[in-house]
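U., I forgot to send this yesterday:
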Amino acid sequence: MDCCKFTLKVHFNTFILVFICSVFFTKFLEANATSPTNFDSRIQILLKNPSLKNVSYGISVVSIKKNTPLFSYRDNDLFCIASNMKLLTTAAAIEYLGPDFEYRTSVDAHGVITASGELKGDIIIRGSGDPNLSGRFYNGNITSVPESWANAIRSKGIRKVTGDIIADDSVFDRIYTNPNWPENQLSAWYCAPSCGLSFNDNCVDITLISDKKPGNVVTVLVEPSTSYFTIVNKCVSTSQKKEHAYSIYRKPGTNQIFIKGKFWINASPEKTWVNVHNPALYLATVFKEILEKKGTEVQGCARVIDETDSFDSVLEKITETVSTMKQTILVMNKNSQNFYAEQILKTLGLQIKGRGSSNAGIEVLHAFMRKLGFSPDEYQIEDGSGLSKGNKLSPRIITTLLTHMNEHPYKDVLYDSLPVSGIDGGLRHRMISSRYKNKIHAKTGYIAKTSALSGYIDTLNGDTLAFSILMNNFKDLDVIRKIQDNICQILVDCYN
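Result:
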């Protein structure tokens, strides 16, 4: 019996010792995992990658809870930031306008509506700068909004319009594209023009379908179906897969779209987008065509408002389309939509400075930067989207902005709009393993030789990390993105 008691006592003491050692070792590992030394050394090793030898880059990582920097490298230097510029545009929109700000596009009758259903006058589409007049929120039906307007006009009893369909885009200037954008890309969807009255992201959807007989011209589907464009299609089918290459571009200052090249006979249909010239006239034209298809005769033409127009008499509102800044920000950041960013920039100029121009919007961004504690000689701003290579911020500016917005009453609007690792947006296919999936909420950015990733990591210990990784002048984008992802993974490993 005494022997058994002694044995039990030895086992019990051994258990206590093991338990104490286990607790101590766990605490040691936790302390070591979150220690600056361990974190610093892991990133330093990563940054010795030979691929970074001639790359210009800066990094800033900040603990928001502790209000302290955790890692920095050239964090005060200026770098091209690509679409990370949208973080500043978003923050300013939240700060000055709020997520509940509404864009309102109205369709008004200017004239007298007779008992017989004749409008002796014009239909006016009055723009507010809304970028959301597309099929995006209407189950992909591009013409859903103008069709609803046409139905409202029919419901009003109007069967004939003696005047014109007038597009009022006067809330913004008519400087459609930024002069600092790449000239050889100005017909691409990501260079879509900014306008006070816009439609379908100011683009036309074009789908190419191969003809099964080599040498025949391919079939081209255009959405929306409209006479606004002239398509010159010289793209032919080919039986040689290696010859599959084509180009689609719009002649500057016109709506002539040229399609050239070869399309493999066994290729699946391919969809692309080309932006338009004079977006307000684009919408007015499509709307007039829809009205006429629905049985409302329009005796006049589709046109944009000019200095000779005067609407002194009372306008009768027929219908109105409304969208919010919150949904606008969500689209802009998840999809990295340059068009949306430029619309927001001019909206800031209009609402805060009284001028719907990019320059006025940039003045608002400068004011916001002053709130963050930065003077104009510490950064450069040329647009709202990041497409211009002249936009330059430092990693510290971005983490300062992210820290500021984390304390904002509407912080969730920015946070929820950011791509999520392994889930959506530009991070859909990045950091997809279960350990990192859904852990990083960050804005991606890419233009030639520029890649950026900045955002938040919510840690399991209750902290939130703000980070910014800006990289310029590299050769291999895939390698650069992998390094950015590895830095984020170290953040997750060390602080969770």
